[in-house]
């Protein structure tokens, strides 16, 4: 019988296996791995890299969804991409891994907020949103959605390693990984553990205004420095369509040319723009399937075109 998953037993102030203080810091006292960390064994390549490679062998495309700026709708775009990928081809198996450890959004956006994760002999079982769409998030391990996750880098690293190496996804066509904003712990952990697992690439999300593009340029630079292929950039909330009068408004003016011009300047693919639709925002808050219920939404139509370009970019890598 499946059992409820327990949180990883990682000391709160763990210095990490690659630190010179590994196994020697005061936080290491009483840890069952103290002697291993203090020895030379822990100074070699992280064994988690091989575990992740083996676990994800049956996942055809592994995609990081990134954004240097918070508040651009990255988690919403991740959910939108996953729903569109699953809805446009019922034979396509899609999953979402929420590695935004401190701000997990996917359980709510995908409508599985009160579900629990269970463990079997083959690993953790993801929560199914639909027959061909599943999700895993630390949000399922919290006693309340309001609980704060107050962890330092090494503990986040351990959680991401567990997610990547212990979730039993089965055969997947697409695994989308929702990350927090920035270029910090979670991003480095994901890029390291996926370095030998055949990471397909990254989709980067932005909004049109320069204050967002400024940080997205840093995210593009991060991808290039750690050798992550950029599948393309999505410009979210590009324009607002009034649901009453259908009048178009620029809530975030593209004063410097927006994402399209930035992509031309930096020589990265531009996947397309998503208009701001308040109905979709409401559906995401309520965890409803906007793809089937709002097929005529301008945002859904634009989304389906973006998904075609993402699929084409992934397929081009396999040729």
What does this protein structure show overall?
With 319 residues, the protein is α/β, with parallel strands linked by helices. The protein contains eleven helices and twelve strands. Strands 2, 3, 6, 7, 8, 9, 10, 11 and 12 form a nine-stranded mixed beta sheet that branches. The longest helix is centred in the last third of the chain and has 21 residues. The N terminus is likely disordered.
Topology:
Elements lengths: L2 E2 L29 H5 L8 H9 L3 E8 L7 H14 L6 E5 L7 H4 L8 E3 L2 E3 L1 E4 L2 E5 L15 H14 L5 E7 L6 H9 L7 E6 L3 H16 L4 E12 L6 E2 L8 H9 L3 E7 L1 H9 L3 H4 L4 H21 L1
Parallel strand pairs: 2-8, 2-9, 3-7, 3-8, 9-10, 10-12
Antiparallel strand pairs: 1-4, 4-5, 6-7, 10-11
The total strand number stands at 12
Low-confidence stretches: 1-7
Helix/strand-derived class? alpha/beta
pLDDT averaged residue by residue: 88
Shape: globular
End-to-end Cα distance: 43 Å
Helix content: 25-40%
**What count of helical segments does DSSP give?**
11
Main sheet specs: 9 strands, mixed
Quick overview of this protein structure:
The chain has 319 residues and is of the alpha/beta class. It has 11 helices and 12 strands.
């Amino acid at each position: 019988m499946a059992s409820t998953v327990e949180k990883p037993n990682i000391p709160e102030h763990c210095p990490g296996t690659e630190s010179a203080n590994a196994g020697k810091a005061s936080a290491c006292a009483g840890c069952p791995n103290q002697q291993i960390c203090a020895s030379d064994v822990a100074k070699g390549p992280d064994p988690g890299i091989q575990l992740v490679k083996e676990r994800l062998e049956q996942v055809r495309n592994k995609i990081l969804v990134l954004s240097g700026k918070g508040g651009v709708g990255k988690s919403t775009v991740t959910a939108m991409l996953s729903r569109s990928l699953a809805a446009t081809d019922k034979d396509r198996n899609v999953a979402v891994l929420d590695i935004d450890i401190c701000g997990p959004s996917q359980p709510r956006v995908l409508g599985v907020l009160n579900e629990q994760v269970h463990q079997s002999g083959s690993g953790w079982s993801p929560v199914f949103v639909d027959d061909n769409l599943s999700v895993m998030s630390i949000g399922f391990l919290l006693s309340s959605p309001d609980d704060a996750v107050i962890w330092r880098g090494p503990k986040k690293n351990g959680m991401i390693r567990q997610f990547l190496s212990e979730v039993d996804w089965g055969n997947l066509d697409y695994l989308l990984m929702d990350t927090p904003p920035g270029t910090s712990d979670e991003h480095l952990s994901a890029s390291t553990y996926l370095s030998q697992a055949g990471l397909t690439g990254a989709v980067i999300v932005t909004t049109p205004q320069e204050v967002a593009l400024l940080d997205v340029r840093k995210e593009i630079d991060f991808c290039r420095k750690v050798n992550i292929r950029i599948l393309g950039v999505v410009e979210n909330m590009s324009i607002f369509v009034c649901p009453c009068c259908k009048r178009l408004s620029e809530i975030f003016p593209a004063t410097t040319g927006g994402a399209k011009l930035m992509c031309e300047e930096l020589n990265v693919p531009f996947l397309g723009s998503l208009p701001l639709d308040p109905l979709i925002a409401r559906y995401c808050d309520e965890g409803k399937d906007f793809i089937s219920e709002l097929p005529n939404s301008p945002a859904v139509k634009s989304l389906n075109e973006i998904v075609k370009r993402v699929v084409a970019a992934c397929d081009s890598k396999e040729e």
